Amino acid sequence: MKYSLVLMLLSVTIGCGDNKTTYIDNTTIAIPMETDLQTECREYLEIGPPAHMKNYVPESLTEIVIAHGAKDESIDPELAEIGGIILLESSALDEIEDLEIRKYMKRGAELVGRVLEANR
Description:
Elements lengths: L1 H13 L6 E4 L2 E4 L5 H12 L13 H11 L5 H13 L9 H20 L2
Antiparallel strand pairs: 1-2
Helix pairs in contact: 2-3, 2-5, 3-5, 4-5
């Protein structure tokens, strides 16, 4: 009975408010909150590319870096270097004629930059 009450209180408390820490029976339970960057990365990956994008590459290096941002995972030096190359190549994105695809690709590059910055 005591455990079911604790679980019930925990489930009710987790769903309420923006608190990062919950106290139950003098025990601190840390509840990780998703950062803005994590949310933006996750949404970018969930939404995916425009439907008419023909040369889309699933699980590209760009998506791998963004997935690290969505999960708030550290980026190793090799992936950071790849991210830097992605940013260098992003200067050519303005040449993409299709507005939707250009916006999608530029948003991906922007998120790569933010994930790299967050890992410095």
